[in-house]
Structure formats: C-alpha cells, structure tokens
Amino acid sequence: MQHLMSPLDLSVEELDKLLTLANDIERNPQKYAHACEGKKLATCFYEPSTRTRLSFEAAMLNLGGSVLGFSTADSSSAAKGESVSDTIRVISCYADICAMRHPKEGAPLVASEKSTIPVINAGDGGHQHPTQTLTDLLTIRSLKGRLDNLTIGLCGDLKFGRTVHSLIHALIRYPNIQFVLISPEELRVPSYIREDVLRKNHVPFQEVERLEDAIGELDILYMTRVQRERFFNEDDYVRMKDFYILNKKKMALAKEDMIVMHPLPRVNEISVDVDDDPRAAYFRQAQYGVYVRMALILTLLEVNIC
Ligand code: NCD
Q1: Which of 208, 212, 219, 210 is nearest to 177 (CA)?
Q2: How does residue 138 score in pLDDT terms, banded at 50, 70 and 90?
Q3: Which of 50, 56, 129 is the pocket-test mutation for ligand 1 (most atoms within 8 Å of CB)?
Q4: pTM, entire model
Q5: Residues with catalytic function
Q6: Which helix (H) or strand (E) holds 123?
Q7: Hey, is 270 helix, strand or coil?
C-alpha cells in the first residue's frame, strides 16, 4: 500500500505515468466514469480549504465513487482531543482512501503509520502540499510541453508557502531547471530548502526582491499569497501582505509565452486585470487539479483501466 506525503514519494517515471494518465482522463472522461464504483474517499480537513477538498471530492465523484468526511477540526472528534492516529484507525474502517489536511507539519505522516488505507497529504502546515505540486506539474507539462529547461520565478511568501516547498523538491529532478526566488527579505525560502535542496543538488538559483527585475527572464511566474495564518504577529502580516501586486504594467515586461500560475486563493497579489491575459493560467491550473487527483486516486487504489 502506497501513501503520498511528499512529491518525492513518486519517482520521475511514476510521476510521468501519473501525468499521462491525467491527460488521458482529461481527453476521455467517460472511460473512467465508473472506475471507482463502490469505493469511498474520506476527506479529513483540519484546516480551511476550497480547491483541494472540493477537487478531491469532485475527482472521486467523477470516478463513480463516493465521499465522506469533515471540513473543520471543530466538526470532528479532534475538538474532543482525539489524536490523528486514532481518527485514521477509525476512518480506515469506513473508507478506502483518505486525503488529510492538518495545520501541524507531519500530522498526515503520523496518521499514515497507523492507517490501513492509503493516506494523501493534502497540506501539512508550512511544510508540503504534494497534490498541489502534481497539479502544478500537470499544468506546466500541458501548457509548456515540458518539465525541463525552464526558468521558474517563485514570488511572494516563500517562507511559509508549502506549495513552493513541494514544487522546488519536485522540479529539481528535471534537467536544466533554474529558479528565481522573488521575496522580501523576511519571507525568503527556509534555509533547509536553500542549502539542502538547492545548493546541495547544484541547482542554479538567484534571490531577488523586485519582481520587475526578474519577470523578463521567466518561463513561468508562480505567484503565492502571504500566508496570514502562519504569522506570529498581525502587524508583520499587514506590512508584507501587499508587497507584490502583479498587474498589466508588470505583465508588459514578461515574455510573450510566459505563464502565470497561482495555487489560489489569491488575495491582492494578482490584480484582476491580469485574468484576461492569455498568459494567466491559474484557473486552468485549478481544473488540472481535478484530473491529476483522479489519476492519483486510481494509482493509489491500484485501479487499472485499459
Ligand atoms: C494553497 C495551500 O493550501 O497551501 N492552496 C491550495 O491548496 N490551492 C495555497 C494557499 O493557501 O495560499
């Protein structure tokens, strides 16, 4: 039985297979409409979510399966003090697969150790968000036609943004990837990412503060929200929250074929006047999230459709 805690739980070959399956699902949804009949997905969300939870649920429903779960910690027995280990032992009796989001780093991993069904990390604190990374890789591969030879700008809250941490881990496995890390000094990537992931693997990167200085050289601009819920102090959040606002004027400095991605939700970091730009890919990205989660459920449940 396989769980998904980090994008590195899948080899590059397994990832490639999964993304190809997601593209086939996109082209032939009917072929998969009954693939998970009789199977249940539990969504255990101890932290707010719109896209991740609903795209998981949509994915299972599209496969003909059913869903159950909770969307806040207060509406589960966590409010009574139950541990995730006990909760997952019980959920294992009710469902065939579980997607779990938790504010504490490592909580889904702890759950997976006691689980008898596959557990998917749907975001653990400021740590990892592997299914957002699968979504991002599918978006990049589908829209740019490759996962290698890319200059990727990651902009915003690189300290607390778990989607950024997972995406860096996943992308460094492809040839000729370069990063431009665009953030204010206080929101730079954690040092374990800079030293143990980037430097140790000899991945070229630059750290800059101004988006205008970097945007012209990028193939992909990945914008992120300042993660208010992870700040210790509201004043720091208020100071940082509007540090970057991507607008039409800045888009004029970008390459014609650059794409703009964002895991969403956006707050102010992308002005709505960018939405109509053909390079804005963030709503298409959300759609790819459903196909890739369908592919992941099929893979972890070992359902084969010929
Ligand atoms: C992201 C998350 O939860 O980390 N959202 C998502 O899953 N699409 C990004 C965010 O909340 O800023």
Answers
A1: 219
A2: very high
A3: 129
A4: 0.96
A5: 51-52, 80, 101, 129
A6: strand 119-124
A7: strand
